[in-house]
Amino acid sequence: MSDTAADPRLLRAPPKKGIRLSWADEKLRGIVWQVLVVGVVVSILWWLVSNTSHNLEVRRIATGWGFLSREAGLPIGEHVIDYNPTNTYARALLVGVLNTLKVAVIGILLATVFGTLIGIARLSKNWLLSRIAATYIEVIRDLPLLLQLLFWYAILQGLPAPRQSLNPVTGVFLSNRGLKLPWIQWQDAHSFALLGLVAGIVATIFYARAARAKQMADGQPRKVWPLALGLILGLPLLIWAGLGAPFAGDIPALRGFNFQGGLTITPEYFALLLGLVMYTAAFIAEIVRAGIQSVARGQWEAAEALGLQRGRIMRLIVLPQALRVIIPPMTSQYLNLTKNSSLAVAIGYQDIVSISNTTLNQTGQAIEGIAIIMAVYLSISLSISLFMNWYNARIALVER
Amino acid sequence: MSATMEPAAHVSSAVRTDAPPAILLDKVNKWYGALHVLRDINLSVAQGERVVVCGPSGSGKSTMIRCINRLEQHQEGRIIVDNIELSDDLRSLDAIRREVGMVFQSFNLFPHLTILENCTLAPIWVRRMPKKEAEALAMDYLTRVKIPEQANKYPGQLSGGQQQRVAIARALCMKPKIMLFDEPTSALDPEMIKEVLDTMVMLADTGMTMICVTHEMGFARQVADRVVFMDRGEIVESGVPEQLFNDPKTERLKTFLSQILRGH
């Protein structure tokens, strides 16, 4: 250390770069442009705000969020939580948010599974399978989503009335009022069994980790699936049986012109979900295909030459590399699906856009209504982005 | 061209002619579509023998050694490796791949794993070795190829020559009985070729059965028990290096040798 301190060449600081007062100076030019851009943005914002407040004043429109606690008086056909028209606008909007989430979350899950399967099928050596997948992707990708939603909705509307409904299996009815499925009368025992299922899954994850750690220590692989099966299926069944195994069916039945009881999937929700999933799955399929193909053939060969089996190669070598290519565009598709769900308004599914629109029509609170829609989509989109970026950072390993 | 061209003492031979051959190719034929890429290949490699395969590009030499661990499938004839015949039986394939290590022209290290993880992956998942043991083994081989200090880096952080030495160590960690080299120095800068060839000479010294596709004639002279010359999918000539290089019998080999020597 003392040697290096003595050597003046090692103590030389980098030269300081000053700003020249000349348009040819890179640094100065950069600062000027940034100041200009900030100035333009601020003045546009100021103009928007002052213009709006002036117009509101002239038209004597009261702003504020007071309307949220007033009675909505607006009927909503489909709600996850209890709702009736005497509830407040706030609750109506909450129902809308939950309806949007219901279609977005389930849509993202199904589109991921379905899209991945099609993407793998597209790469299959089976000629028929890969051609079917390719045709699906080309047809679905090339047609506008709105058209597809209207198409599915029209088909579902073309189904017979409840009295003449299709009845493929006992208890299942398909009519223009939607799909009716048998369900169970929900009791506390079922809730506890559901908790048992969650606990079983968590326990399985811990068990699998412990098994992996043990394998690393003594080299012997352990079969995880027998105990996993016991934990995931056995635990909830045991709890359910322990609580007296209550079971009462809730079978849909025709009463007058419509069905009573059972689980309902409305034509609006079904058409929207189907359209969104099929449309997004086509894009996801191409992303998955590109990701798998981005891994060089040599990686497969090197792993095969080492004696690894195909499943292991996929899991340990190919997927970790493919995911790094897959995740960023996948995030965009999840965001697209969520925002595209606002097309619900075209086929009468009451999502947040539909309910906000009705609200602003009834109350005249346009700015607040639009602000709510923006805030909802922004929150959902940012949550998806944050989660996916976190996941991406976790799997993006150092390469150099 | 490379330092191995100097007439170094020939590495002592460990050929065991008394034992059954390590590799036996019996009338092997292969086509790519209508293109006949391997024609009636007969080759027997004894345990401990070092064979260098040379020939012009497109002569089928890479295809031949890739058939030995079934990265390519032959369509006719028999291939027997370590007394196991290659067939559609996946168990025999697994057994053969465990005993045969391979080094590629383009290294093919796994970019998302560290150097150490590249080396321990197969021992852990195929040999079912405890992680600690696999790591100790990997460090041992990384020391032998003279890069133990790079163990925790990623492949992208290493030079080409270092990556190829890691690839050799990775294959050796499976403790193979046979090593296949598919043009291991062709993708390297001249100054890195020597470090890889030195590693291979060191490996030859241990008595490993090796088949090496290469154009490094100095390496062939120093290490090979036998040189096999291939052209247009068939074995044209084979023999000990001195005889083959100094007294080629066929026109094709003469032409090939003159082109190789002019290039160097």
From TrEMBL, chain A:
Alphabetical list of SUPFAM superfamilies matching this protein: MetI-like
Membrane topology: Multi-pass membrane protein
InterPro entries listed in its UniProt record: AA_ABC_transptr_permease_3TM, ArtM/GltK/GlnP/TcyL/YhdX-like, MetI-like, MetI-like_sf
Localization: Cell inner membrane; Cell membrane
PROSITE patterns, sorted: ABC_TM1 (PS50928)
Cited Pfam families: BPD_transp_1 (PF00528)
Domain ABC transmembrane type-1 intervals: 97-388
Residues annotated as transmembrane: 30-49, 103-121, 189-208, 228-249, 269-292, 370-391
Keyword terms, alphabetized: Amino-acid transport, Cell membrane, Membrane, Transmembrane, Transmembrane helix, Transport
Major location (coarse): membrane
Xref: PANTHER family: AMINO-ACID ABC TRANSPORTER PERMEASE PROTEIN YHDX-RELATED, MEMBRANE COMPONENT OF AMINO ACID ABC TRANSPORTER
Cited NCBIfam families: HEQRo_perm_3TM (TIGR01726)
Family label: Belongs to the binding-protein-dependent transport system permease family. HisMQ subfamily.
Name of the protein described by the UniProt record: Amino acid ABC transporter permease
Gene source species: Teichococcus vastitatis
